[in-house]
Amino acid sequence: MRARVFVMLKPSVFDPQGTTVADALHTLGYASVTAVRQGKYFELDIDAKTEDEARRIASEAADKLLANPVIESYRIDIEKTEAAKR
Questions:
Q1: Rounded to whole angstroms, how far apart are CA atoms 25 and 13?
Q2: Which of 7, 23, 26, 54 holds its CA 20 to 30 A away from the CA of 38?
Q3: How many domains is the chain partitioned into structurally?
């Protein structure tokens, strides 16, 4: 199974990189972009029998390593890979 982990700064945390990207987009003429938040993306291939087990493992990895729970939140999407479909 493949777990996709999306890590974002919490809404209350200032995002200087997102602000810089938004300013650059405005300079390039994209005035309709009103805000940018940056984040991280991870793909984990997990040998698990069920989606629940894969989600649990990905969540533990995110809690322990991939995200800083003080300033970041995360979302996990699970996809069955070809090997897991058999």
A1: 21
A2: 54
A3: 1
